[in-house]
Write a structure and sequence with these properties.
Helices cover 76% and strands 5% of the residues. By secondary structure, it is mainly α. The chain has two domains: 52 residues, no CATH class; 264 residues, Up-down Bundle (Receptor-associated Protein). Helix 7 runs antiparallel to helix 8, helix 10 crosses helix 11 and helix 10 runs antiparallel to helix 17.
Length: 403
């Protein structure tokens, strides 16, 4: 059945928007009547616009605020539907407003909050949906929403700090690349005629000959390089959105020298924090492992965690399969093993997350400090290579002229 977008008013005169799946407009009007809504406009044209708005991503900081406000309203005794309606009306973000309108309509029809949120993966994260589902099942929805708010804000802070730390190396690399490209395209070709005689005699240094050939290639085929680069970027972006592409990205991201360990540690810390929180709120360990595996943010690590949950179902401990996968440091698996024996796993996991995050931030700061001089040396080396390649034949010409 097609989807119809509608604009209506309720008994209080409030404007209500949403979508309904129906065979025709007559059925839509009947469905609105059962909801005590007075239709103002019903068509299928507005749906495309609504879908484009819903398809936009919402900033993590804004989502953290939403989760926190929803938790606060529920703790104050405000019903879920009323809480969603209040947050929808006060939202200044078009995408979030449209999503909350549709989530409100779905919950009103009997869909659980977690299932309604799961329909909009570009707005609600896997971790958020899983925590809300667990909270609804376990009777601690308000606590789950508060935790999701804290996690979302923490992840946003981690991302902001990481991007902030890498801005200088990225800008340095971009400017250096532009300078080198300008030298090769606009400066080096001017020396072609000057070195032509040496080239004919076979006396041109190989590094200069290579530089001239590369410069000619860039000058003559820059358009093909741009088109090929854009095509490669589009293909890589499309591939990384597939399941195989995400697995490939996650597998190789943790193997990047220096940065791989940092990315892996962040995923381990996220897993430990989510698992510890769920266990503390009484969620069964198998269910908690399934949720925390999704929240880890790395599919390689998630698969290892899911395999560990299978071993736990067979009666084994958690520490052994985690240690066997090779992605968890020995110190962490030992702490988990001791915590299992002392029945303090929920508390220890949160402590592990705190410790790993502090250590990871120190590693990130050190990595960035080492990366900056390394990029400077690399760019200086490239510029030096260009200068030397141009000076060597000029020295030969000068020596021949003096001789």
């Amino acid at each position: 059945m097609p989807d119809f977008a509608y604009i209506a008013r309720d008994n209080a005169g409030q404007r209500v928007t949403g979508t309904i799946s129906a065979a025709n407009q007559r059925d839509v009007l009947a469905a609105l009547a059962t909801r005590a809504l007075f239709p103002l406009h019903v068509d299928t044209k507005g749906l495309a616009t609504a879908q484009r708005v819903v398809g936009r991503r919402v900033k993590p900081q804004l989502m953290a605020t939403f989760y926190g406000q929803l938790a606060g309203l529920l703790k104050s005794g405000v019903p879920l539907l009323r809480s969603l309606d209040v947050l929808r009306k006060q939202s200044n973000n078009a995408a979030l407003t449209e999503v909350l309108t549709q989530v409100h309509a779905a919950v009103e029809e009997g869909t659980s909050l977690g299932d309604a949120m799961a329909r909009y993966p570009r707005t609600f994260s896997e971790m958020g949906v899983s925590m809300v589902r667990a909270g609804a099942e376990g009777g601690f929805l308000e606590e789950a929403l508060s935790r999701v708010s804290q996690f979302t804000e923490l992840q946003s802070d981690i991302k902001s700090r990481t991007v902030g730390a890498l801005i200088y190396p990225i800008v340095l690399t971009a400017i250096g690349s532009l300078v080198v490209a300008a030298l090769l395209i606009f400066v080096v070709p001017n020396f072609k005629l000057l070195f032509a005689r040496l080239r004919e005699r076979g006396q041109l240094p190989w590094v200069t000959d290579w530089l001239l050939n590369f410069s000619e290639f860039l000058t003559g085929y820059w358009w093909a390089i741009l088109i090929g680069g854009a095509g490669l970027f589009w293909w890589a972006k499309s591939y990384l959105e597939t399941e195989n592409g995400r697995m490939f990205r996650d597998r190789w991201s943790i193997r990047i020298p220096g940065a791989g360990k940092i990315l892996l540690n962040l995923s381990v810390a996220r897993f430990c924090r989510v698992l510890g929180t769920l266990l503390k709120n009484g969620v069964p360990i198998i269910r908690s492992l399934g949720i925390s595996a999704e929240a880890a943010g790395n599919r390689v690590l998630s698969n290892a965690i899911l395999q560990a949950s299978e071993n736990i179902s067979a009666g084994q401990s958690l520490a052994k399969p985690l240690a066997a996968c090779g992605h968890f440091p020995v110190t962490i698996t030992e702490m988990i093993s001791v915590a299992e024996e002392s029945n303090s796993l929920d508390t220890v996991l949160v402590e592990i997350a705190d410790g790993v995050e502090k250590q990871t931030w120190r590693q990130l700061d050190l990595f960035v400090k080492l990366l900056e001089p390394l990029m400077l040396v690399l760019l200086a080396g490239v510029v030096l290579l260009v200068v030397v390649a141009l000076l060597l034949p000029m020295m030969k010409i000068s020596a021949g002229a003096s001789g």
